[in-house]
Design brief:
The complex is a heterodimer of chains A (about 110) and B (about 210). With about 110 residues, chain A is mainly α. Chain A has three helices and no strands. The longest helix of chain A is centred in the first third of the chain and has 39 residues. By secondary structure, chain B is mostly helical. In chain B, helix 3 runs antiparallel to helix 6. The chains are: A mainly alpha (about 110), B mainly alpha (about 210).
């Protein structure tokens, strides 16, 4: 069993190793959090500045949002870890349907 | 390794959220649910984008007249930081320190409640400006999308609080660790949706 293997012959060393691994991962999380805050600030700043044209700002802030969501999914929700193939399939299938719905509503609705 | 087994720091497995069969099923099932939630919010975004600023006459406020940057920015910060605090909670869960996990979850719940409070205040202002659920197609689409997200936040708060209270006297085991983990996934997903709401609804609304 995968889960019984973790109790090694030398649990103290094992614990130390795992603590280190967890701390290392936490450091990556904090870096991605800092980047997320940074992207948010740029997005708000781009709108606040008002000097840019509408045609630049909208795609630009959408791109920033997409990057930020990648950080959320892959680091905060651990999709970068192994064993997340099926979750990725579920999420991206959902995303495909969602994007097609948005495309449809944007192109065939008129009031 | 049984779900109710008492653990120590030494024997606590490296991935407690996936250590039992029940946990693995919960993990997969929850991601399946998140796939469905993506579709749900996708259709609400589609509706909003199709009906944005569609009002019966010029006496109704448009997105440009309604949204205010400071309020949106503050709400975004509350939710973003609460996402980080729940990451801290899961870090302590993996290190088998139950009290620290509970403390970080409490901070997460507090920040989530602040976000919800701001949203209620914001909606109240909009209603005073004549922007209600039934005032226009724009109003219906706006409240359906943002309100659904707010409802998710409220549900998440109740969920995390119930988990904290129910397990307060138990400590961590392989029965409740996956529950905490899945609740934190849900909380991150709420933040993912908010990133698109603040961009598509608020920032794009302010741009015009």
């Amino acid at each position: 069993m995968e889960n019984t293997r973790q109790t090694s012959a030398n649990p103290r060393i094992d614990l130390k190793y795992r603590r280190k691994k967890n701390a290392e991962e936490m450091r990556y999380q904090i870096i991605s959090f800092a980047l997320m805050i940074f992207l948010t600030l740029i997005a708000f700043g781009a709108v606040y500045y008002e000097g840019f044209s509408h045609w630049f700002v909208v795609p630009f802030i959408m791109l920033l949002a997409a990057i930020q969501v990648v950080f959320q999914l892959f680091y905060f929700m651990h999709m970068s870890h192994k064993g997340h193939e099926t979750p990725a399939l579920f999420l991206f299938s959902g995303l495909t349907v969602a994007l097609i719905t948005i495309l449809t509503f944007l192109t065939i609705t008129w009031i | 390794m049984q779900a109710e087994e008492k653990f120590t720091e030494m024997t606590w497995p490296a991935s407690p959220e996936k250590a039992t069969l029940e946990a693995k099923n919960k993990f997969l099932g929850f991601w399946f649910f998140l796939g469905g939630e993506t579709v749900l919010f996708g259709s609400l975004f589609a509706t909003y984008l199709a009906l944005k600023d569609k009002v019966p006459d010029s006496s109704h406020p448009l997105a440009k007249d309604l949204f205010e940057m400071p309020l949106t920015f503050l709400a975004t910060m509350f939710l973003l930081v609460s996402s980080l605090t729940s990451v801290y909670a899961m870090y302590h869960m993996k290190n088998y320190s139950f009290q620290r996990m509970q403390a970080w979850l409490l901070i997460t719940v507090f920040l989530g409640a602040c976000f919800l409070g701001l949203e209620v205040y914001e909606f109240r202002n909009y209603v005073h400006e004549g922007h209600t659920f039934t005032s226009s197609a724009f109003g219906s689409a706006f409240y359906a999308l943002v309100g659904f997200h707010g409802g998710h936040v409220a549900f998440g708060l109740l969920w995390i609080l119930s988990l904290m209270l129910r397990n307060a006297g138990r400590g961590l085991n392989l029965y409740n660790a996956p529950k905490f983990y899945v609740a934190s996934l849900y909380w991150h997903f709420i933040d993912v949706v908010w990133v698109f709401i603040f961009t598509v609804v608020y920032l794009m609304g302010m741009v015009g």
